[in-house]
Amino acid sequence: MSAPAPPEDAVATVDAPVENSKTEAPEYAAVWLPAWSLAVRELVRFFRQRTRVIGAVGQPVVFWILLGAGLHGSFEPPEWAPAEMTYQEFFFPGIAVLIILFTAIFSTISIIEDRREGFLQGVLVAPVPRISIVMGKVGGGAAIAILQATIFLIVGPLLSLVGLAPGLELSVSLSVIPATLAMLVVIAVGLTALGYCLAWPMESTQGYHAVMSVFLLPMWLLSGSFFPASSGWLGWVVFLNPLSYGVAGLRRAMYPAGTLGEAAGLPSGPICAAVSVGFAVVCMGVAVWLSNRRTTTDLR
């Protein structure tokens, strides 16, 4: 005897969700699942390397304490700053950007290591879009950078309690925290994507360190982080440096509106946000373009 056929209404009710899962789940998995997996891999690798955690946070903090103590006597607040601003307070946003820069450098070095170990070749031949690779590597590195910079912004003012830094005239409010976090995200994505673009064609970590010394560190030094923007050719270099707008935007975001004045050395908040977002978008686009190119370097 054969089993009775199920009613037609019951078959239609069960089949509808199955068809949706067949059409939507693969599209979601093809783009976001590889990106999420690569980002989580970056986070796991970072937290398993304790020396990397200490180096990425400890070195900028030492810079802030030592350089702040040594240069505060010769510092004069720029015209846009309050008269009571100390050098450590002026240097504070710049150190947060330096932490993001160092973290972006160390995160994107993993691209060279992954290629040498054969992991990157395995990812490239997998049936996933190249944009997922970019999103995963940049997203993981940016998340680490944001976490470290946020910890520094919280812990840094507390160093005044043990005499390692003067008191900072910063206020913590609901209007300051979201703007500060937003600028950290934009700067972290932009710098990590820039590091991705520089590391992708590299074949050795030594070559990448040379680029870091010649290009990335001067880029930070000439961003208004270390000293105020001056006139002349140096002022033009700071003006043309896209990282200058990230530092200025973070500096403005850390203070309530109206605390910092309008001056040539400190662009307005909307200009800083527009330039920083544009820089991040351009770097992400170049990273995707580089990843879609077919080169013999991918096979080495």
User: Quick one: biggest sheet?
Assistant: none
What's the total count of β strands? 0
Q: How many angstroms does the end-to-end distance come to?
A: 64 Å
Mean pLDDT: 80
Helix and strand string, N-terminal first? HHHHHHHHHH
The residue fraction in helices comes out at over 70%
Structural class: mainly alpha
* Shape designation: globular
C-alpha-based Rg, rounded: 24 Å
As for the number of domains, it is 1
By DSSP (H or I, 4+ residues per run), the number of helices equals: 10
How much β-strand is present in the residues? under 5%
Uncertain segments of ≥5 residues (pLDDT<50)? 6-23
Assembly of the depicted chains: single chain
InterPro entries: ABC2_TM (IPR013525), ABC2_TM_bact-type (IPR047817), ABC_2_transport (IPR000412), T7SS_ABC-Transporter (IPR051328)
Protein name: Transport permease protein
Pfam family, one: ABC2_membrane
Subcellular location: Cell membrane; Membrane
